[in-house]
Amino acid sequence: MGRTLQSLWTRNMIQTQYLYAISEAIASDIPQLSDSISRRLHNDVQAGVGLDPALAQRRSERLTAALRSMSQGLAGAAEPGNDFLVEATVEAKAAAQAGLDLHELIHTYRVLQSVMWDVLLNLTTTIIPDSSQQLLAQKSVSRLQNHWHDVVVAEVVDAYRSEQHRFFYKSEGHRLRIELRDFIAGRRTTPPEAAYNFKSKHLSVVAWGDEPETTIELAGAMLGATGQLVLESTDEAFLGWLAVQTKPSLVGQFTEEAFPEGSHLAFGSLDEGFEGFRRSHQRAWRAYKVGRLTGAKLTSYADVALESVFATDLQTVRDVVRQQLGPLLSDPRKDILCDTLQAYFASGCNAVAAATVLGVHERTVGYRLRSVEERLGVQVSTRHVELLVALRLRNLLQSTGAIGVP
Fold it and tell me: Could you tell me which Gene3D superfamilies the record lists for this protein (predicted)?
């Protein structure tokens, strides 16, 4: 009997050591695992996050937190912990507000579970030499993973349904919110009933941060708006349409100082009529995608139209930047060389004008451009468009503070 207990104790100790080793392996590889899951979700049409960058960011943060939680569970912690459950339910509420289908949200957890099971199987066979011990470890991690998944999904479903009911059926303006969403999406041809002239000229805006409604009111006052329509959107952002007769250039008179501290505003284009109402909103929303990522106080669609195409897929942005700028990014002087290249393009490919902007001699600009060409193996003049796009996307990455910025 003593030998049996000793043998059982020894076996449990060995299994515990192996689970710790697997836990550490996952913890050390979280950025790569999160990136792998994000890529799979991005390529999966069932798992789109819509156009809301705040929701995309929440998903990215949740994936990282989920991997950390699973790793801690393998090391013996009682997971999923309350901290992770709070994060998961906050994302579920934001998904409900954005109108993301519940099945799509749950699908992301299935993808997470599938990817993690593949990883766990690989780790057990890599770390554990004995096949019988491998089987025991796989049974343990399977139980832990299934328990984690069941608890989390149950919490997520409850949070989603509760928020969906509150946001769409009990909150103020629920009818208008649903009708406006259908009108913008083209599912209805007549505008909703609201105290707003949908046939006028419109400037659509999106405000978030501190005092978003006040921010929209201030923007309307500056433009002399004759009417405005304001509606709560997702993740504490507010949508606004301002009925204005002014020229688009007057929007350039907006200054950061004119709006509350901690507020953010993105705006689209000045358009007219029903189609203009939709188009201005779509452009303001694209500007919002960039502004939400960068944290800029004021964001105009006219300035960030290119960046908005990529704003919800930072991994693709990294890929484009690395593919185009490649060897240049490993140079110790990469920032100087990139700034010089961007100034050169902004100056109409005029080295003298670029030198004036940079405050250096034109020969210095010429030397730096030759250095760029040597590292990239191409002439700058033949890759003007591609390099300019890559430089702007690199700026986008840097302004977001994203991990892995080249």
Answer: PucR C-terminal helix-turn-helix domain (1.10.10.2840)
